[in-house]
Specification:
The structure holds 2 protein chains of 2 kinds. By secondary structure, chain A is of the alpha/beta class. Chain A has 5 domains: 183 residues, no CATH class; 116 residues; 170 residues, P-loop containing nucleotide triphosphate hydrolases (Rossmann fold), CATH 3.40.50; 89 residues, no CATH class; 148 residues, no CATH class. Helices cover 60% and strands 8% of the residues of chain A. Chain A has a 6-stranded mixed sheet with strand order 6-11-12-3-13-14, sandwiched between helices. Chain B has a single domain, classed as Jelly Rolls (Sandwich), CATH 2.60.120. Chain B is built from 5 helices and 8 strands, in the order H-H-E-E-E-E-E-E-H-E-E-H-H. In chain B, the strands form 2 sheets. In chain B, strands 1-8-3-6 form a 4-stranded antiparallel sheet. In chain B, a hairpin with a 5-residue loop joins strand 4 and strand 5. In chain B, helix 1 packs across helix 2. The relative contact order of chain B is 0.20. The interface between A and B is medium-sized, with 35 and 31 residues.
């Protein structure tokens, strides 16, 4: 990246800047012309020549219009350059982050990069827009005015400018003094805040030693210091202002006296109109003058800031330019996976070797287990072999130096799974296909400027041998089954919804499942764990809204948040006397929600997962709650009442356990339910479908639909029994994959927070398998699985990778039994290699590790 | 129902949470799930991944450890107000012991995310958890000593 700020600006915005300067030339050139027109108009007025004066005024007006239009273009252009440069700079910096060497990323706090990329760069943006335009615009304006003054009367121009050298010398000097004081002030204020913190922390000591007076006087002297600095800043600031004004006005006074004298005594060399315009030109010098001084001060700050930011984004060992730029050769070369390490070394902190002149050679298509104690360098070895970590010495992969293997080939052919595979914010499917996100089908994918290619296009199905969505799904399921993710997909899918109108056949089959499940309940019991929908009974595990509606409609006004304002709904709750109850309930819920969530950061997962009000609604409800302390709920304005009712309607009594939901309340809700369905207005009657044992309801989850009720979440054994029963029925009906497919759309939360650690690990493994790598490298990648499942999982992975290379850092030495070769590491060196049987028979390090593990 | 209020009171009686402000207790109670276990039912199983911590509200549960030889050893009995399952969450590892309900057990299930957040955001809870863990360690060490002497 360009080290010099101006060179960067010119490199990234040469043409726009050129255009901008051309416009500025136009504005600046118009200025003396306009001054001259003014002079001529004045002359004509003095000469009492109305016609010419009018005509010249019209010219002047035209010039004003043109100049205004040019200024409009100039300002927009500045804004445009500013924003374009900001976008480009952030893009450039982000590209750099993606190219950081792994070791550097681990030592750099993300917060630091974020604050640089978001905050500090923002200040630079403004400077980008002004960098060339401000000095050229104000410089030219200054030149224009001065030039015109010289043209009018060189002698007077010289006089007028005579005082400027004094200002040029004096003002920046004083200004620098002010900046220095400002810096001192910041330091002094920091000292005061430290002092306060210290005093609060050490208050016990202060009392015990009776040093209250001492501390108080010390604190006052610090305050006094700040006070003095500030006073000096004021003094200097106003002194500068005073000197500036004085010098300006002094010049003005000189010009008045001399110009007046000239106009009276020698009208030939200076007339009144010229004098007036001359004075105006003199006045026009002020603004550009001030702007220029200001600009040159800011330029220094911008330069320093730019260099600091750039330095932070330029670590040694940056990975090569973007693979985006580099065309991948087709077909992507195959890798056999024969590694040959010769004196490969990795050093941290410049001294400690993690891999110490390591010698290792593994034949192609082998399954290699790596074992060693903590600190033996096994994780680093895995990273090096996956081309994720730099090294010195030599590492050959299929006789080619690994460092020279193109990233595009490594990324497609080598899969790496570490102990905590990262999940990205998005759906499960998006996470699973992440390893296939290569080279969009159209365009070059460079998201610089125009629109970026959509995620759908960033999908390379070739390694799967798949061509369409269906075969992709099949491949995803295969990978999911291998790593045991299929059950998770199934149960996540059960808790999702589908649209029965788009998938009528699936809805019909789910209804069959509903009947079968009911049969099973009749024979096997277990109803106690389900709350079946019953038109005459309140359901504690459904929201109040669901309870009142007891049905659904595609119409938007019956959506949860529109319901409180719906006319028919309002009439119904008023008629059965539910409105007041809902208001009271809403008020209670609002109070609890505000109390619980007021200190939770807005982007926290807790909000999305648990809160009945969103982070954006919180301030509104906080206001409402404080208002409720003075006003009764039913005395609130209509909008606020609707808010409370909406909140009450979101409540699921058994789950949220908020508010007073008693028998009387439930009876009223059931009454409202009947009333609502019986007195439907005709428009609604067409779309509204009440819950019915024989119909699929779109607003419920698959599980709700299969049970025709809600599962009680309190009894875990019963829940397990029902889950097993539902799973059996669904599988027997061939619906398992349908449910799993629904599970693929499950949103994993921010960085996968809605998944458990094992689920995240499963996703990481399935993602690796899905790209059909030629080399799979694992670093304790199964450590979240239950201990007794690991043997089987290793076997399954090895089977899935049959005929290809697997190199696995093992979490337990006994697992090595399933691998072709075992490599034992100690202190960054290979101490033993051989088959499991060979090493077990020998009294070496492997034997020791085995003994330690048991 | 207003059962949240009652749950908050229950939590307040647990030493670990005693010093917490009401808003925090409400957050815990609100995000916790109430789960019931029948006698003999396994609450957490040794070696299983950890997804939640539990606080026993009612009933007793027994803690079993399976050693490498496959013997089951009962190491403790937990009564009402006991916290269990926090070790594996904090260590991000697997369950270190099996806990089985002895009577019908009612417990608060606090998801790992909420629990970790709590420890992170409230130094008081973090400190309390450390104390509980340290005491447990001390007790285990004492048990081991007894065991050796025998």
């Amino acid at each position: 990246m360009e080290q010099n700020l101006y060179r960067y600006i010119i490199k990234r915005s040469f043409w726009p800047q050129l255009f901008l300067i051309a416009v500025i030339f136009g504005v600046a050139a118009l200025n003396p012309f306009m001054l001259d027109l003014k002079k001529r108009v004045l002359k004509m007025i003095i000469a009492l020549d109305l016609n010419t004066a009018l005509m010249l005024s019209a010219w002047f007006l035209g010039a004003v219009l043109v100049s205004g239009a040019l200024k409009y273009v100039k300002q927009n252009m500045e804004g445009r350059i500013q924003e374009t440069m900001l976008r480009n700079l952030r893009g450039d910096l982000y590209d750099r982050i993606l190219r950081f060497p792994l070791a550097h990323v681990r030592n750099t706090p993300a917060g630091q990069l974020i604050s640089m990329m978001i905050g500090e760069v923002e200040d630079l943006g403004q400077f980008f827009g002004e960098a060339l335009s401000v000095p050229s615009f104000h410089g030219l304006m200054l030149l224009g005015s001065v030039g015109y003054m010289v043209y009018l009367n060189p002698l007077m121009a010289l006089l007028a400018l005579g005082l400027f050298p004094l200002q040029i010398w004096l003002i920046p000097k004083l200004q620098r003094r002010v900046s220095q004081l400002a810096r001192d002030r910041v330091k002094a204020v920091r000292g005061v805040s430290d002092r306060i913190q210290e005093s609060v922390g050490a208050i016990q000591e202060i009392y015990a030693n009776d040093t209250v007076a001492f501390e108080a006087s010390g604190f006052r002297s610090q305050l006094q210091k700040i006070f003095q600095i500030r006073i000096r800043i004021y003094n200097l600031k106003y002194l500068i202002k005073w000197i500036n004004n004085f010098l300006e006005k002094l010049g003005y006074a000189f010009l008045l006296i001399i110009g007046g004298w000239l106009a009276i005594t020698r009208p030939g060399s200076m007339d009144v109109a010229s004098l007036v315009v001359f004075l105006e030109a003199y006045n026009q010098l002020n603004e550009p003058w001030r702007e220029l001084i200001n600009h040159f001060q800011q330029r220094e700050n911008a330069r320093v800031k730019y260099e600091q930011v750039i330095a932070n984004f330029d670590p040694p060992g940056l990975r090569p330019e973007f693979p985006l730029e580099e065309r991948v050769e087709e077909p992507v070369p195959e890798l056999a996976g024969a590694y040959e390490m010769r004196a490969a070394t990795v050093v941290v902190d410049g001294r400690t070797p993690i891999l110490d002149r390591m010698q290792l050679s593994t034949p192609p298509q082998q399954r290699v287990a790596i074992v060693g104690s903590a600190g033996s360098g096994k994780s680093t070895l895995a990273l090096v072999l996956a081309k994720l970590y730099g090294y010195t010495g030599s590492v050959l992969l299929d006789s080619m130096e690994l460092a020279e293997l193109p990233s595009a080939v490594a990324g497609r052919r080598i899969a790496f799974v570490g102990p905590d595979a990262r999940t990205f914010t998005g759906t499960l499917l998006e996470n699973l296909v992440y390893g296939l996100r290569h080279r969009p089908a159209s365009g070059d994918g460079k998201a610089n400027g125009g629109s970026a290619a959509g995620p759908e296009e960033w999908l390379d199905l070739a390694p799967l041998g798949a061509s369409d969505r269906a075969s992709l799904t099949a491949a995803v399921f295969d990978a999911a089954r291998t790593v045991d993710l299929d059950t998770d997909l199934f149960f996540l899918g059960l808790r999702a919804t589908i649209d029965p109108e788009r998938k009528p056949e699936i809805a019909a089959r789910l209804l069959t499942a509903r009947r079968l499940v009911r049969e099973r309940f009749r024979h096997e019991g277990g109803e106690a764990a389900v709350e079946f929908f019953d038109r005459d009974r309140f359901s504690s595990y459904a929201s109040i809204a669901e309870n009142v509606l007891f049905g659904y409609s595609g119409a938007a006004e019956l959506s949860l948040d529109g319901l409180a304002g719906h006319e028919h709904f309002r009439r119904v709750i008023a008629e059965v006397g539910l409105e007041e109850t809902l208001l009271t309930l809403g008020a209670a819920v609002a109070r609890d929600m505000v109390e619980i969530f007021k200190d939770i950061p807005a982007d926290h997962e807790l909000f999305a997962e648990f809160s009945l009000i969103t982070a954006t609604e919180l301030p509104e409800y906080a206001r409402l709650v404080s208002q409720l302390e003075r006003t009764a709920p039913d005395a609130l304005p209509g909008e606020d009442r609707a808010r409370l009712v909406t909140l009450a309607l979101r409540l699921i009594p058994a789950r949220h356990r908020l508010g007073q939901v008693d028998d009387a309340f439930m009876a009223k809700v059931v009454a409202a339910r009947h009333r609502f369905a019986e007195s439907l207005p005709p428009a609604l009657a067409r779309t509204f479908i009440p819950y019915d044992r024989e119909r699929y309801f779109a607003d419920g989850t698959l599980l709700d639909n299969i049970l025709f009720g809600k599962m009680l979440a309190t009894s875990s054994l019963a829940v397990k029994k029902i889950n097993a029963m539902v799973e059996e029925v669904i599988t027997a009906n061939g619906l398992r994959e349908v449910v799993m497919e629904t599970g693929l759309d499950y949103h994993v939360g921010i960085a996968g927070s809605r998944l458990s650690p094992v689920q995240r690990q499963k996703v990481g493994l399935a993602r690796a398998l899905l790209k059909h790598p030629h080399i799979l490298i694992l670093d304790e990648a199964l450590n979240a699985y239950e201990s007794d499942r690991r043997v089987e999982m290793h076997q399954r992975l090895l089977q899935a990778m049959e005929g290809r290379t697997v190199i696995a850092v093992l979490e337990r030495p006994d697992l090595a039994k399933h691998y072709d070769r075992v490599v034992v590491l100690d202190s960054g060196k290979v101490t033993e290699t051989g088959t499991y049987d060979e090493l077990s028979a020998r009294e070496g390090l492997f034997h020791q590790l085995m003994v330690q593990a048991t | 129902m207003q059962s949240l209020e009652r749950d908050v009171e229950t939590l307040r009686n647990i030493p670990l949470f005693a010093g917490l402000p009401t808003a925090r207790l409400k957050l815990i109670a609100y995000t916790a799930e109430i789960v019931r276990f029948e006698p003999g039912e396994v609450i957490v199983r040794q070696g299983a991944p950890a997804d939640a911590a539990y606080i026993i509200v009612e009933g007793e549960a027994e803690v079993w450890i399976t050693d490498t030889a496959g013997n089951n050893i009962r190491v403790a009995t937990l009564g009402a107000h006991s916290l269990l399952g926090e070790v594996a969450i904090l260590a991000r590892s697997h369950r270190t012991a099996t806990v089985q309900a002895k009577d019908p057990v009612v417990a608060f299930k606090i998801s790992a995310n909420v629990f970790l957040d709590l420890v992170r955001q409230c130094p008081d809870i973090g400190m309390q958890v450390m104390t509980v863990l340290a005491q447990r360690l001390e007790r285990t060490a004492a048990l081991l000593q007894q065991h050796d002497r025998r």
